[in-house]
Backbone:
């Protein structure tokens, strides 16, 4: 089975920004492991907030409000397969880290210290689905790949804050009222909407959708149905819709390629 990085066709270097619902942090560190294993020098970070990574996710965590300090510290970890995480500050008394402003991501890329920078560029309060507010997502302008996530477990559930972060905004994009059932067409409308998970993505950035939590035959088929809905939209929403699940590793059930057209 191909890895996520192989399916996306990740090249020699760049910036990956991850947006949308739950699973972003797991995907970020999964990609970092794949890239580091292939010999790439990787930085994982955020432009919003993330939990302090576990030792399994990232053995090295650098914290400074000055990107140049981060870069000097990263030099101590030079070499192929290097992976470090970085944050602007710790947010006591929580176990969360504050991310960098988008311009710092440009500084990190321009330094040449890293081959790939993987950025969690959105927050969803651990819900499987969200709609972005006016200030979201926080996608750096030098992003080369955007991956938008959504959890398939929202299908068949009523629209509300229990499952959907910023559910009122999401309802507007999905054309649903509070309490109405989230359907396949409604989810496709949210993913395809200009004010959805790809809002603010650089025009030249490659776009991918990952439909997570396809952990049953029923949800796998529903994921396929969402992909088929997106296939009918012109211009294409993304290069590929990936239907799978994030566990310790990613299980890919189906990948819909060919510009989703």
Residues:
């Amino acid at each position: 089975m191909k890895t996520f990085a192989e399916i996306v066709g990740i090249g020699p270097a760049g910036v990956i920004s991850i947006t949308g619902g739950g699973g972003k942090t797991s995907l970020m560190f999964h990609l970092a492991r794949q890239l580091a294993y292939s010999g790439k020098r990787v930085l994982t970070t955020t432009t919003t907030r993330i939990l302090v990574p576990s030792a399994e996710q990232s053995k090295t965590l650098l914290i400074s409000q000055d990107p140049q300090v981060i870069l000097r510290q990263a030099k101590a970890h030079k070499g192929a397969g290097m992976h470090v995480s970085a944050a602007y500050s710790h947010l006591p008394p929580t176990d969360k880290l504050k991310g960098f402003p988008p311009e710092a991501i440009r500084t990190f890329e321009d330094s040449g210290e890293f081959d790939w920078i993987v950025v969690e560029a959105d927050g969803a309060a651990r819900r499987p689905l969200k709609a972005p507010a006016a200030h979201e997502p926080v996608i750096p302008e030098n992003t080369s790949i955007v991956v938008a996530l959504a959890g398939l477990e929202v299908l068949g559930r009523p629209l509300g804050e229990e499952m959907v972060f910023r559910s009122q905004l999401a309802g507007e994009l999905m054309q649903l009222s509070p309490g109405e059932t989230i359907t396949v067409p409604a989810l496709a409308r949210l993913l395809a909407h200009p004010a959805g998970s790809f809002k603010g993505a650089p025009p030249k950035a490659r776009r991918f959708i990952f439909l997570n939590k396809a952990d049953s035959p029923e949800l796998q088929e529903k994921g396929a149905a969402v992909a088929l809905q997106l296939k009918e939209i012109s211009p294409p929403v993304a290069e590929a819709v990936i239907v799978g699940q994030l566990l310790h590793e990613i299980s890919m059930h189906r990948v819909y390629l060919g510009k989703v057209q």
In short: The domain at 4-256 is CATH 3.40.50 (Rossmann fold).
